[in-house]
Amino acid sequence: MSFLTVSNVHHTYFSSEAATEALQDINLSIEKSEFVSFVGPSGCGKTTLLSIIAGLFQPTAGKVLIEDQDVFANADLSIGYMLQQDYLFPWKTIEENVTLGLKLLNKNKEESKGIASTLLEDVGLPSIEKKYPRELSGGMRQRVALARTLAVDPKILLLDEPFSALDYQSKLKLEDLVHKLMKEYGKTAVLVTHDIGEAIAMSDRIFLFSPSPGRLYQTFEVPADLKNLTPFEARSHSSYSELFQTIWKELESLEHQ
Ligand SMILES: Nc1ncnc2c1ncn2[C@@H]1O[C@H](COP(=O)(O)OP(=O)(O)OP(=O)(O)O)[C@@H](O)[C@H]1O
């Protein structure tokens, strides 16, 4: 049994004027501790599928199971979501932001502070507990958002373009950090990205979707020699360029269909 299975998922958005078929017959599975990416042209349903995996809404048909439990029916399944914006509360300190989820779970205050301090150290930001978000750079804020996501020890991390608003150097550094922490913590993660290079450098497998309606078009296994490298190192490996060319060509062909 896989850790996560998406079975026969279809999704149509209905408005008073139109029905948009966003996803058609999606079937895939993800193993525990695996890091996968969803890539594909704009509008192919990546964010829709990620939201369905998060249990934010029910698909028109089909289901998503995590460890055999339906994500939509089990609101208590702990799923971490990280987005392009950090959504830190400006009026709360960094410590309060990181411990917010723990507070909602009624965790002991001192224990929560301990978890926050360890995680902030893990993301390379020790001793900033009493600062406010406005005192930090964009990259630092995203690292705080990562610590906040990890604080509740989620079963899976869903990452929707979390690096795309950052400058290139911060993006590469954060990719390395997320990759390292996911491996250390043995977390399962799904990344939505427009950046093929990022998908190759970070993932074990890549799912390429085609648009109108969104379908799973092809799956790529990232070569083993890249998986043992940091994303930064992977980007200068010959296997990286080969896979990049292959996926690029597939994407080009999809965009001209
Ligand atoms: N709330 C909504 N109501 C109606 N249609 C929607 C809604 N959200 C998305 N869609 C449509 O569903 C399709 C899939 O959208 P989705 O945002 O999932 O794609 P995406 O691959 O994440 O796109 P992008 O890469 O541009 O972020 C698109 O045709 C989009 O216009």
From TrEMBL:
PANTHER family: ABC TRANSPORTER ATP-BINDING PROTEIN (PTHR42788:SF21), TAURINE IMPORT ATP-BINDING PROTEIN-RELATED (PTHR42788)
Keywords: ATP-binding, Nucleotide-binding, Transport
GO molecular function: ATP binding; ATP hydrolysis activity
Residue ranges constituting the ABC transporter domain according to the UniProt record: 4-236
Record PROSITE patterns: ABC_TRANSPORTER_1, ABC_TRANSPORTER_2
SUPFAM superfamilies for the chain: P-loop containing nucleoside triphosphate hydrolases
Superkingdom, taxonomy of origin: Bacteria
InterPro entries linked to this entry: AAA+_ATPase, ABC_transporter-like_ATP-bd, ABC_transporter-like_CS, ABC_transporter_ATP-bind, P-loop_NTPase
Name by which UniProt lists this protein: Spermidine/putrescine ABC transporter ATP-binding protein
